[in-house]
Amino acid sequence: MRPAAIPVAAFAIAIFLAMSASAHTRSVSYSSWELDPQGARVRARIPLLELSRLGLDPVLDVGSDGPAARYLASHLRFTAGDGVCPPSAPVALTAPKGWVHLEWRVDCESSGARAVESWILRTEAPSHMHFARVSEPGSAALERVLIEGERQWPLAREDEGSTRDAGGTPLSGYLTIGVEHILSGWDHLAFVLALLLLAGGFLEVASLVTAFTVAHSITLGLAVLGLVHPERQAVEALIGFSIALVAAENAWLLGGRGRVVPWAVASSLLALSGLAVWGVGVVSSSTLLGLAVFSACHFALLDRVERPARLRAAVAFAFGLVHGFGFAGVLAEMALPTERLVPALFGFNLGVEVGQLAVVALVWPVLRALQRSSPEGWHRGVAEVGSAAVFALGLYWFLVRTLGG
């Protein structure tokens, strides 16, 4: 294969991988259980995208008497003693776009220790996480993450009448969730990789990682605490844009800082902004226009400096704010009680940092070794191919998420 064709091949392969990766994100579902002496009232939520794993139609199969309702009611179980409490017929509730929201009751014929069980997508997605929340009069609400290997949550001993001894997910559990979330978040990892491809010494890497970490920690906290409520679709589109822009910036720096890349980025965003005026896509025209202005200014500033490390750290901080809203999705959907927010937020954020640092510790030493041994050879080739692949991923995610795919 000719050297010039290698980045093109990397671009094509990355597009294919992006299409596969975007088919499903982290597999999650949620439920709340309001306990009473007879049983419990259950409310369950699951993204429509998850139903495609079951081969269900997201329009025809999600009604109160449809197969999606029957599936959830039979795979979210409430047990008492040795028996499963039978569910009533589920009722579909009003749900945000892209979600199914159902409600039903379970009434227990036998007494004894109670438990909540999740068998949702056990075969189709073994890594599926179900977030259950339990409440009853006179006790604080508790939550537990049910995963493969821990699908049952015992609520009380047989001689107890309360959930107080059941226990929620501990700090270590949220730390694990944070690690898993970043390691399965291909878009976040692609952004980190794009930053590392041209990073030099340890101080430059430390500044990039610190800027990104501080920024996403700020917005993660703001979103989970309910102080800021960003539009999820716009956030996901901006995450894709951040990946594509940093990768395009890499190619521009490697290629001699010509005018083609800045012009192409800005004009493409202006075109998308114009389409948005006519109602095309889910991101507003003003947002896309702002991105066009930001991109043009960013490339103009970069063109004036010989060592762009500080500006790249500033960009890592700016886009880290956006990625923090993306990280917040899992915890924000849980609607945790106030007293559980701090340990959950701290543990989850710590897990994200641990996973992120693990990736940096694996990738950057290899890139640095290539840079030292062959600055104009292998390292440049890896940077070019890597940037082409990451750009393809980011561009695909940005367009699909912007146009409402």
Task: Give the topology, please.
Blueprint: H1 5-21, E1 28-36, E2 39-47, H2 48-51, H3 67-75, E3 76-80, E4 83-84, E5 91-92, E6 99-107, E7 114-118, E8 129-136, E9 139-146, E10 152-154, H4 171-184, H5 186-197, H6 202-224, H7 232-254, H8 260-277, H9 285-302, H10 309-334, H11 338-373, H12 378-402
Parallel strand pairs: 1-8
Antiparallel strand pairs: 1-2, 2-6, 3-4, 3-7, 5-6, 7-10, 8-9
Helix pairs in contact: 1-12, 4-11, 5-7, 5-11, 5-12, 6-10, 6-11, 7-10, 7-12, 8-9, 11-12
List keywords for this structure.
about 400 residues; six-stranded mixed β-sheet; 12 helices; elongated; alpha+beta; disordered N terminus
Descriptive notes:
The chain has 405 residues and is an alpha+beta fold. It has two domains: 5-24 and 185-402, no CATH class; 28-169, no CATH class. The protein has twelve helices and ten strands. It has a six-stranded mixed beta sheet, with helices on both faces. The protein has a four-stranded antiparallel beta sheet with strand order 4-3-7-10. A hairpin with a 2-residue loop joins strand 8 and strand 9. Helix 5 (186-197) runs parallel beside helix 7 and helix 7 packs antiparallel against helix 12. 40% of the residues are buried.
Strand order of the largest sheet: 5-6-2-1-8-9
Low-confidence stretches at least 5 residues in length (pLDDT < 50)? 1-16, 18-24, 157-165
How many angstroms does the end-to-end distance come to?
34 Å
Tell me the number of structural domains.
2
For the sheet with most strands, the description reads: 6 strands, mixed
Average of pLDDT: 84
Treating each run of at least 4 consecutive H or I residues as one helix, how many helices?
12
Beta-strand content bin: 5-15%
Which radius of gyration do the C-alpha atoms yield?
A: 24 Å
How many E strands? 10
Q: What is the structural class?
A: alpha+beta
- Measured as a percent range, the helix fraction is 55-70%
Oligomeric form: single chain
How are helices and strands ordered from N to C? HEEHHEEEEEEEEHHHHHHHHH
Shape: elongated
